[in-house]
Amino acid sequence: MSDTLANLRRKIDGAVKLESVVRTMKAVAASSIGQYEAAVRSLADYERSVEFGLSVCFRQGGAGFLPFKRRKGAEVTGAIVFGSDQGLVGQFNEAMAEFVEKTLATTPGEKKIWAVGERIYGHLADAGLPLTGQFAVPSSVHAITGLVGQLQMAMETQGSACMKIEVFYTKLTSGAQYEPITQRLLPLDAQWQKNLIKIQWPTKNLPELFGSHETTLRAFIREYLFITLFKACAESLTSENASRLVAMQRAEKNIDSLMADLNRTFYRLRQSSIDEELFDVIAGFNALSTKR
């Protein structure tokens, strides 16, 4: 009986420690969600400024020239897939891998896939998709810039000017709910230009374009691509931490239920042990009284 009580005590102590870890992870996930959401909001003003600059370039320089325009050649589709490096995120990576597989199944031609995250890389490899490279998931908001630079360099090395490139990431829909989505990064088309040309300048002082039109336009387009990738990464990290928060809440609920069961069993066994000891004392007393 004492061994059983000791084992139960060890299990209860282990559950208490595990619950402490889960609560810490919940707090970290909740804090991370706020940071990444703030990063996306803070990028909105800069994105608007870049769109204004592109609008001026296309209005004053004409829409005929467009760098990063898709060239004729072999049908190649590039995909940048954002996942996670760590576990405890529910079906986050599984849902993304399934979405990528279904989307690319209807896309003809050669495919090149860059996976951001060790876990999503494994799921994509298991699905038999052609993987070109793997990148680590940023551990903070400040590390996203470095990742985006690596992705841009990888795309240029692989000849992004001849490719159609899609970005796959997850985005929060409502509360802690998220869904995988895709966004076209390249090529830049005429409709994209027309949408930018329609943007109205916010003041009566109209801007003028100085210097090389091509150089200025290329600089603005690179910033546009940077913003698109940065937002996709930040949205993915927000969804990842939201999924981890839900998983930790579920784990905490299960631990509470387990601890309640363990405590009931422990108190019942302890009471049973006390009762047996009392019965032994009473039986001994009765035996002594009978002899006397």
Q: Which key phrases capture this entry?
A:
6 helices, 292 residues, 2 domains, Pyruvate Kinase, Chain: A, domain 1, single chain
Q: Can you tell me about this structure?
A:
The structure is a single chain. By secondary structure, the chain is of the alpha/beta class. The chain has two domains: 2-22 and 252-291; 30-246, Pyruvate Kinase, Chain: A, domain 1, CATH 3.40.1380. The protein is built from six helices and five strands; from the N terminus they run αβαβαβαββαα. The protein has helices spanning 2-61, 92-105, 118-126, 144-157, 190-197, 213-291; strands spanning 76-82, 110-116, 131-135, 164-174, 177-186. A five-stranded mixed beta sheet has the order 3-2-1-4-5, sandwiched between helices. Strand 2, helix 3 (118-126) and strand 3 (131-135) form a beta-alpha-beta unit. The two termini are 33 Å apart. The model has no long low-confidence stretch (mean pLDDT 86).
